[in-house]
């Protein structure tokens, strides 16, 4: 019995030491990534692999459950799973160090392989930094074991004062703190690097400037979504766990493939071209009915047709493929760049140089298409090819190859399941159809008739509009529905469709309660 107790005690101690070792190792990998642009984040590189191999339903679940926090959840999950593995491997190494040494070795190989798939990774630096982090992890495990043992005995009167246990807990706590601080500092440096290149840049004055929103473009009502979303609040959905840090002086955009001449443009070339401003609403295909993965902004850029005409599009080139600096790619029909919609190579957002997390130095903005088939951020290549010759990133993962944004509407006020004063109340929300524009919005209260709403003046035919309706509620529970009709004559139906594979459908419906004043 005494032997089993001692073995369990030693195993637990070694398990906690393993957790500490893994924490230190992970913290150092992130710190090294922050210190050098040639060393990608190991956590993010492994996370990117997880995203690549994840089935479509899991991606949909992650976005619908966590929204724009999905990347943070993935990073935290990866960190916690690594600590759990450290616990079990540490326990297995209580009497023999071989398991933990092998585990750290395997982790090093996986980490190096994942990091070397990232653009700009320097092989020698990646290997060296990973080996240092792994060695630090093993030494932390071993050192913590030795330190905690030095305060205890191995006889039946084990550590009567608890000194060894306290040392162990202090050591594990210190290792976790070091890890969290290292990860925080490393991530902060990564974010700083992503933004520093754009810090001194100024957006040129466009040759076509859009008017600022006026009172007719938005209703001054509480809870209403702003008619133009601030850059910091604009939704972000992409596969980049770490925002690419792109040096605009080294960046180029190549237009190639089925073209008369290959064109290579620098950032200075793009900024010297005639720029235009356009209000365009973008939406993620994963947006559930009534959710917030949609936003409207004022984009500044070069009309995409102008760039394509520089290269000369050859007959038969019926697909435009955009490729990101991190390898992500999307494709859409070539005709859509020339059908009159305001497709842009955007370099500005809301009259600021394009933010790093929204695609700096340049991205594609194609009105009427979901982002997964068109909105290539951190773009570095545009290739003209055939429709059958290439599938974008999400197509083999089960999403539709064509991704037109579906006509949608949303109730912003009142909030779902909220209480409002009985009597007069003004309902409000937004509606969008970037391809056709919104012709009308209707609201139904309980089982009453559909009532037409007042619309704000659209900023453009490709931007969303606000709607409002003066209503009256008697005391009690109420059901509110909204539907929109676009300028092509389509009216939203009650048919409920999930986001996969080509966008959600249905009426946004909320429940509220009217209470006595």
Describe this protein's structure.
The chain is built from nine helices and 19 strands. The protein has 517 residues and is α+β, with helices and mostly antiparallel strands. It folds into three domains: 195 residues, no CATH class; 162 residues, Oxidoreductase, molybdopterin-binding domain (Sulfite Oxidase, Chain A, domain 2); 108 residues, Immunoglobulin-like. Helix 1 runs parallel beside helix 7, helix 2 crosses helix 4 and helix 5 runs antiparallel to helix 6. The longest helix has 34 residues. The protein starts with a helix and ends with a strand. About 2% of the residues have low confidence.
Q: Helix/strand/pairing class, anyone? A: alpha+beta
Mean pLDDT: 91
Low-confidence stretches: 154-161
- Backbone shape: globular
- The tally of domains stands at 3
- Helix fraction by DSSP (H/I, runs of at least 4): 25-40%
Radius of gyration: 28 Å
Summarize the model shown.
The protein is α+β, with helices and mostly antiparallel strands and 517 residues long. The protein has helices spanning 2-35, 42-53, 56-66, 70-92, 98-115, 123-149, 163-196, 267-272, 304-311; strands spanning 252-257, 263-266, 276-283, 294-303, 319-324, 329-333, 344-349, 352-353, 363-365, 379-385, 408-413, 419-421, 423-432, 438-445, 451-452, 454-455, 465-473, 476-486, 508-515.
Task: Record the SSE blueprint.
Layout: H1 2-35, H2 42-53, H3 56-66, H4 70-92, H5 98-115, H6 123-149, H7 163-196, E1 252-257, E2 263-266, H8 267-272, E3 276-283, E4 294-303, H9 304-311, E5 319-324, E6 329-333, E7 344-349, E8 352-353, E9 363-365, E10 379-385, E11 408-413, E12 419-421, E13 423-432, E14 438-445, E15 451-452, E16 454-455, E17 465-473, E18 476-486, E19 508-515
Parallel strand pairs: 1-10, 12-19
Antiparallel strand pairs: 1-2, 3-4, 4-7, 5-6, 5-10, 7-8, 7-9, 11-13, 13-17, 14-15, 14-18, 16-17, 18-19
Helix pairs in contact: 1-4, 1-6, 1-7, 2-4, 2-5, 5-6, 6-7
């Amino acid at each position: 019995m005494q032997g089993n107790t001692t073995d369990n005690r030693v195993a637990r101690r070694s398990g906690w030491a393993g957790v500490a070792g893994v924490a230190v190792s992970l913290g150092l990998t992130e710190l090294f990534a922050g210190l050098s642009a040639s060393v990608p984040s190991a956590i993010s590189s492994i996370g990117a692999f997880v995203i690549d191999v994840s089935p479509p339903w899991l991606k949909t679940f992650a976005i619908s459950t966590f929204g724009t926090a999905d990347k943070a959840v993935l990073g935290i999950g990866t960190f916690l799973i690594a600590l759990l593995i450290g616990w079990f491997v540490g326990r297995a190494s209580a009497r023999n160090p071989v398991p933990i040494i092998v585990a750290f070795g395997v982790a090093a190989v996986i980490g190096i392989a994942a990091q070397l798939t990232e653009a700009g990774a320097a092989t020698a630096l990646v290997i060296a930094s990973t080996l240092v982090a792994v060695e630090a992890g093993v030494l932390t495990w071993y050192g913590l074991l030795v330190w905690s043992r030095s305060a205890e005995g191995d006889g039946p009167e084990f550590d009567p004062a608890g000194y060894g246990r306290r040392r162990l807990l202090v050591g594990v706590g210190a290792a976790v703190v070091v890890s969290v601080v290292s990860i925080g500092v490393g991530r902060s440096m990564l974010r700083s690097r992503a933004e520093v290149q754009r810090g001194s840049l100024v957006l040129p004055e466009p040759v076509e400037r859009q008017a600022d929103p006026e009172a007719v473009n938005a209703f001054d009502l509480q809870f209403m979504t702003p008619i133009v979303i601030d850059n910091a609040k604009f939704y972000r959905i992409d596969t980049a766990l770490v925002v690419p840090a792109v040096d605009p002086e080294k960046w180029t955009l190549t237009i190639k493939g089925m073209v008369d001449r290959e064109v290579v443009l620098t950032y200075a070339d793009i900024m010297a071209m005639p720029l235009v401003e356009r209000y365009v609403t973008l939406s993620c295909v994963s947006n559930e009915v009534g959710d917030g993965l949609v936003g409207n902004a004022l984009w500044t850029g070069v009309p995409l047709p102008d760039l394509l005409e520089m290269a000369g599009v050859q007959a038969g080139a019926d697909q435009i493929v955009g490729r990101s600096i991190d390898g992500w790619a999307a494709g859409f029909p070539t005709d859509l760049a020339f059908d009159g919609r305001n497709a842009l190579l955007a370099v500005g957002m809301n009259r600021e140089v394009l933010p790093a997390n929204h695609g700096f130095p340049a991205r594609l903005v194609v009105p009427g298409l979901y982002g997964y088939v068109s909105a290539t951020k951190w773009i570095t290549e545009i290739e003209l090819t055939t429709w059958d010759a290439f599938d974008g990133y999400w197509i083999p993962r089960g999403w539709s190859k064509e991704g037109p944004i579906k006509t949608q509407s949303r109730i912003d006020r009142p909030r779902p399941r909220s209480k409002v004063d009985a009597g007069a109340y003004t309902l409000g929300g937004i509606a969008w159809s970037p391809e056709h524009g919104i012709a009308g919005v209707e609201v139904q209260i309980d089982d009453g008739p559909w009532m037409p709403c007042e619309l704000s003046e659209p900023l453009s035919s490709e931007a969303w509009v606000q709607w409002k309706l003066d209503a009256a509620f008697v005391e009690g529970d109420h059901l509110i529905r909204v539907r929109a009709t676009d300028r092509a004559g389509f009216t939203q139906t009650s048919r409920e469709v999930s986001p996969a594979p080509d966008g959600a459908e249905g009426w946004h419906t909320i429940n509220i309660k009217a209470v006595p004043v």
